[in-house]
Design brief:
Number of helices: 12
Shape: globular
Structural class: mainly alpha
Number of domains: 2
Strand order of the largest sheet: 1-2
Oligomer: single chain
Number of strands: 2
Helix content: 40-55%
Distance between the termini: 37 Å
Length: about 375
């Protein structure tokens, strides 16, 4: 097993115990508490756990299929009817709505921020009278058989803040490596290191910092985890190529490694590593779930060996496609560091990430052929 893989597994275990400790403790507490201590005599329906008297029918569901439809239309155009928006359509968004919150990369250059109501017609459907737009004609016929939850919310203003933060952290680390206070600059970024920290400690602390940051963006889901893994991989490869070994490398070795990648040309290489690893992991996460259904007699892949060759080819194709990011990342990094005096903002990073992912997606499609 490679050293990078060992680091990846170690950090994943740390995250597992850190994130599940509260949940496991809560489950244990529930089992230990005396049910008779609660002021109620009404048992949950079916004799199982739950609120007294609920649900109002005998449960029959045994499984749940969870589909996260990333990139779908806004709920305001589907089932979250807001008739009041029509009265203020086109007016400027009140300051009380944003309350000073930063805006997205896509809207950062807008001079105005008008309120926009839905363009689609809504109507009540079913016995429950649920409001559903004309975009969901089939769903409208089954509203009495489904549950529409409107209480889920997020503080995130971008679709994937996780990858933006991870890439932004790489830009700041590379620039900080050019100065004389690298350790202090990392601490200012929230990475708890000392002047005598080893390379492994730095990678571990960067991973912890990312984990703490992404805890505020639960909507990122698996993409947050994948972006964090891509950062660790980029760090390990960058430091591993410049220093003696990851185990023997010091803080000075880490700084020298990142200083080497802080130039216009070399930062493109660092960006390529990050985006190639991120994209490869994303594709593998989907392919791994489905690949077994396409292996065997009569399928596209006749045996396990061919499936392994397919995965290797997919990884190679992804990393080659990511070269397109390397071509313009260095120029973007150099230009914005000069303009911001080394303090590239998250909004600027968000715009770059959005553009890079669009270019990468187009390159993947082009390379895949008809």
């Amino acid at each position: 097993m490679s050293l990078e893989r060992e680091i990846e597994l170690l950090l994943t275990r740390r995250q597992l115990f850190g994130r599940t400790a509260a949940g496991i403790g809560g489950a244990a507490l529930t089992a230990l508490l005396n049910p008779r201590a609660f002021a109620t005599s009404q048992e949950p329906v079916g004799g199982g756990p739950g609120l007294p008297g609920l649900p109002h029918y005998q449960p029959t569901a045994k499984r749940v299929i969870y589909l996260f439809m990333s990139g779908g239309p806004s709920q305001l155009d589907l089932f979250d009817y807001k008739p009041g928006l029509a009265d203020v359509h086109g007016t400027e968004l009140p300051d009380s709505v944003r309350m000073g919150q930063r805006i997205t990369g896509m809207t950062a250059k807008q001079k105005q921020f008008p309120v926009a109501s839905s363009l689609f017609k809504f109507a009540r459907h079913g016995k429950c009278g649920a409001w559903v737009s004309e975009l969901l004609p089939n769903t409208a016929t089954i509203v009495d058989d489904i549950a529409i939850i409107k209480t889920v919310n997020t503080e995130a203003i971008n679709h994937d803040p996780a990858i933006t933060y991870c890439f932004w952290l790489l830009t700041r680390m590379a620039w900080s490596a050019r100065g004389t206070s690298f350790s202090q600059d990392l601490r200012d970024l929230g990475v708890r290191v000392r002047a005598d920290s080893s390379a492994l400690t730095v990678i571990s602390e960067v991973a912890d910092r990312i984990r703490n940051e992404l805890a505020g963006y639960p909507s990122s889901g698996q993409f947050g985890e994948i972006a964090a893994l891509a950062v660790r991989s980029a760090l390990a490869e960058t430091v591993g190529q410049q220093g003696p070994t990851l185990f023997g490398s010091s803080m000075d070795d880490v700084q020298q490694a990142f200083r080497a990648y802080s130039t216009r040309a070399q930062f493109g290489v660092l960006a390529h590593r990050f985006f190639a690893d991120f994209t490869a992991r994303c594709l593998r996460s989907f392919v791994d779930r489905e690949l077994s259904n396409h292996v065997g007699p009569g399928h596209a892949l006749s045996n396990v060996e061919q499936s392994g060759d397919f995965l290797k080819a997919l990884d190679t194709h992804t990393r080659q496609a990511a070269r397109i990011v390397e071509d313009f990342a260095g120029g973007w990094y150099s230009k914005h560091n000069w303009e911001s005096k080394g303090e590239i903002s998250r909004d600027e990073t968000q715009r770059f990430v959005e553009y890079a992912l669009r270019k990468l997606r187009s390159e993947l499609k082009r390379g895949a052929g008809p």
